Amino acid sequence: MKTIVRAVVVALVLTGAAASTQIASASASSKVTIAKNSAMPTPMCPPDDPNACGMR
Amino acid sequence: MSQGLFVGLLSYLEPIFCALVLLSLVRSGAARKFIFLTSLLGVKLISGLACLTLLGLSSRGIERHLAYQMYFYVYWISYAVEAILSLLVIYSIFKLAMAPLKGLQTLGMLVFRWVAAISVAVAIGVALTPHLSGMKFMVSMVTQLQQTSSILTLCLLLFVCFAIRPMGLSYRSRIFGVSFGLGFLAATDLVRSAWLSHNSNMYSTVNIVSGLAACLTFLVWSAYFAFPEPKRRFIVLPTTSPFLRWNQISMALGDEPGYVAIGGIPPELFAPAELEIMRRASSKMPANLEGQTGMHHSISA
Questions:
Q1: Which stretches does DSSP call E strand in B129-203?
Q2: What is the pLDDT of residues B181-197, one digit of tens each?
Q3: What is the extent of the structural domain holding B288?
Q4: Which of B48, B73, B198 lies nearest to residue A38, judging by beta carbons?
Q5: Number of separate domains in chain B
Q6: Which residues of chain A approach chain B closer than 8 Å at the C-beta?
Q7: Is the ipTM above a cut-off of 0.90?
Q8: Using CA atoms, how far apart are residues B59 and B63, in angstroms rounded to an integer?
Q9: Does residue B240 fall inside a structural domain?
Q10: Which of A19, B2, B8, B73 is an S-S bond match for B191, by CB 3.0 to 4.6 Å?
Q11: pTM over 0.80
Q12: Is the CB of A9 less than 8 angstroms away from the CB of B157?
């Protein structure tokens, strides 16, 4: 049990660390790379977008 | 089931599961102990319901552009509030986890505050490049802050997981459950950010992963708060334990120093009994020491 929990935690941390190296290059280009942890659509366009960001 | 339907289903399930965790928290009587988590879940629930209403009313009750504008502000304002509350949740969880080791708790919280302050400074510093201004500056800074917050959460999870025994906790403790949920959300957040940096789309496929992660976390938290928590174990550490040694050192570091009155003390500050003791003591002193103890004479006079 202890080993399994530790392995899962280490896997989570490694996944996070690997993912954070991929974001570094994107944040320099000032793209929106953040979003809530939710299934809801992320508003990526400015609020006055003429297409309403493709909202259905 | 199509992707759109599945995302829709997850969007509706999220507030339901969030309400379930809140209910379990309140019923277990742990809402006060986990006050920041309760606040975070409350904000998530309210913003989730508001976003769902706006998405539902778009092109039906409200004009599409107006609905998007409202959705934009509700989404990002609640995101900012949730980000601040998440940091406070991490802080409070660390405080609760370290409660038996008071010295390390004080030292750890001091380090935590410094790390948080340095992270904010670094985020502002990274965002302060010549070509960035206004909205782009904000985006860059918030992205950096979000990454820092996620990495801090993962560090907390790693610490709680590996130092669980000296803190008297078990894997069934709520502190571990909350840390695990936060760590899971943080890892998903980082993966999602990496994904969005390559494919930014309002209705991205990664929404499914985020929705599933959120629902799973809410279910884990509900289970932890629905069942009674095992009592914190009696902590027995070997005398050679580094935890014990560092705790003793940290406690000594936080001690208030004692103060010694050297001079310039008016006699009125002393009680008559104290003055009498000093007068008797000075009268018993040999004559050759009287020169060195002139101060005592002046006080007793």
A1: none
A2: 999 998 998 888 888 77
A3: 267-300
A4: B48
A5: 2
A6: 1-2, 5-6, 9-10, 12-13, 15-17, 19-20, 22-23, 25-28, 30-50, 52-56
A7: no
A8: 5
A9: no
A10: A19
A11: no
A12: yes
